[in-house]
Design a protein that fits this description.
The protein has 11 helices and 12 strands. It is α/β, with parallel strands linked by helices. Strand 1, helix 1 and strand 2 form a beta-alpha-beta unit.
Length: 346
């Protein structure tokens, strides 16, 4: 199983006057150092999400990933996710094909509809077309990925393309394209039917309750004429690793709860408590937190449930101190990964 990290490049949503650009520069510089370390300690994958909000610095993840590609040698680099519905599929392909050239075949795309809606009005898209935008643009993206000369009939949201070349082509014969889902059965079934790898985000509740979605995915793949055994799946979760269980729980609580409560206020959720947080860190909870042995045991236990090929951990949530993230990455690569690989393979 592949082990990796993902983040949204969180920054202070309310910096001092005149400091917003400097804060973003600092976070991107630290992020590059963190992923250099992830590469050095042998982690397999790093993903960077696209957001268009004041609390995140990665509205153009392909640009940041290109800088990381030039400083790393082995780790695979992916969006997590690209908000395809509000972007142009041709430009998305071109950007990640270029990244793939810089990375010499280590680039991937993870596409989805996004968990926030800011990009839709920003780029002139209507939320009334939410489902149709993604369906049509995914079809075009796959057509561009699979064909150098593109003929595409068009749809309700985009004009047709008649025999036009799309360049550059990726270093890999086919740029890997994953579908990111948040638990909607229709999205899960679409990914399986199309024969595309699927990444499921689990950020609340008991992870085991998502197991039927993996069954649905594999069933849909068979209906689409694909061998489920050849399709990759991932679970993407929140969590942290430190030298002791208590240190990990305490360090992650403040920054992560600040983020979740801020988003919760936007969406009408009630505030979360420390007691709720502590429950979610247990063996059945959604947070993957602890010392290396605790985290490894939980990863292994959930692999038995999901039979997933990839595990991505979001440790950099909120304003996590850089030194704590560096220590967490070091432990993840040098302590957690060997335990998991000995048990599962990878």
């Amino acid at each position: 199983m592949e082990l990796g990290l993902y983040t949204f490049a969180d920054v202070n949503p309310d910096p001092a006057p005149g400091e917003r650009g400097k804060d973003a520069e600092r976070r991107i510089r630290e992020l590059i150092a963190e992923i250099e370390l992830a590469d050095q300690v042998g982690l397999d994958v790093f993903g960077l999400g696209e957001h268009h909000r004041r609390d995140y610095a990665a509205s153009a993840p392909g640009v940041i990933l290109a800088a990381i590609a030039a400083r790393t040698s082995k780790i695979r680099l992916t969006s997590a996710v690209s908000v395809l519905s509000s972007d142009d599929p041709v430009r998305v392909y071109q950007q990640y094909a270029t990244l793939d050239l810089i990375a010499r075949g280590r680039a991937e795309l993870m596409v989805g509809r996004g968990s926030f809606i800011e990009s839709f009005p920003l780029f002139g898209q209507s939320l009334d077309d939410y489902d149709q935008l993604f369906e049509e643009k995914l079809d075009l993206l796959l057509t561009v990925r699979d064909n150098e000369i593109v003929t595409w009939q068009g749809g309700e949201t985009r004009a047709p393309i008649n025999g036009r070349g799309v360049y550059p082509r990726s270093f890999q014969d086919k740029l890997p394209i994953w579908i990111a889902v948040g638990g909607t059965p229709q999205s899960v079934a679409r990914a399986g039917y199309l024969g595309l790898p699927m990444a499921l985000a689990i950020i609340g509740g008991e992870p085991a309750r998502f197991a039927p979605l993996f069954d649905l995915y594999r069933q849909a793949a068979e209906k689409g004429g694909h061998d489920p055994a050849q399709l990759k799946t991932s679970i993407n979760v929140h969590g942290f690793v430190a030298d002791t269980d208590q240190t990990a729980v305490d360090q992650f609580y403040g920054p992560s709860s600040a983020v979740m409560n801020r988003i919760g206020r936007e969406r009408g959720w009630g505030p979360s408590s420390r007691a709720q947080y502590d429950r979610s860190t247990g063996p059945e909870g959604a947070l993957f937190i602890g010392d290396p042995e605790t985290l490894a045991r939980k990863i292994i236990a959930h692999h038995e449930i999901f039979r997933n090929d990839r595990f991505l951990l979001q440790m950099a949530i909120g304003l996590m101190p850089h030194d704590q993230l560096m220590r967490g990455i070091e432990l993840y690569g040098t302590k957690v990964a060997p335990i998991v690989r000995d048990a599962i393979g990878g």
